[in-house]
Amino acid sequence: MLSAVGFTAVYVVGVLTRPGQVLENRALDASTFRASPGGLLSLVSTPNIAIALALLVLLGVLLRRFRPTGRAVGVVLVSTVLSQLLKNGLLARPDFVGDVSENTLPSGHTVAYASVLFALLIVLPPRVRTVAALAVSVALGVVVVQLLAFGWHRTSDVVAGLLLVTGVMALAHLVLPDRGTPPVRSNSGTRALTVLGALVGGVLIVASLAFAATLALDTSLATTHALLLASQIMCLAAVSLAVMTVLWVQRSVPAGIEARRAPLAHSGA
């Protein structure tokens, strides 16, 4: 799975190499640490996640979208448990630069927000999903920018959290796909929003790569604030790609389901 490969690459480069730790810590030096920043970051807690799950289930029942609701709940629960197992037990952070060696990858706040917001996109019907994805992108973008700006997490922590939730979401779609759902035709508005999202993600990716190349060619520009800004742009690009992946996966049909639909289509012709 691409998400697993990406997660491993982020962990290896950002945590298991000295250059990766040095760069991320330099970006972290530009942050302004706040123990209680308020806003979206202060909402992450076990009771609030439980409330969010209850609201998702209620919404799914009201919309009579039972299989997507089951899939959404699974995404939140599995992502949350897996992130804690990885961060607190399975993954280690070597002390290459003399800082705190406690592992912080993946970011629990990123996983909490991404899993709940992606679960909302799963539960919502296709006709409103693309519009909702814009709001999800904005909210998640604010969260990841604040996580870096307030010094709560490094870039690799945030990107790994997004990759983890995206991978769990894709796996859930394979294990518990929708059945008997006809293909959804996109109207012009939906297509325009999808194209806009893809363009924004593409621009952010190009910007982050160009920024990184500039800093690599001229190390005098690689100040802590420049590295922090580059890290935030990179995380915003990761948010855009993750949300686009959620939309694409929800519109796709697993091969086994497609094979079962084919005879029905021919018989009705």
From TrEMBL:
Q: Which Pfam families match?
A: PAP2 (PF01569)
Give the residue spans that cross the bilayer. 41-63, 70-86, 106-124, 131-152, 158-176, 196-217, 229-249
- What does the UniProt keyword field contain? Membrane, Transmembrane, Transmembrane helix
Q: Which residues form the Phosphatidic acid phosphatase type 2/haloperoxidase domain?
A: 50-178
The source's domain of life comes to Bacteria
Fetch the InterPro entries from UniProt. Answer: PAP2/HPO, PAP2/HPO_sf
Protein name in the entry = Phosphatidic acid phosphatase type 2/haloperoxidase domain-containing protein
Write down the species.
Conyzicola nivalis
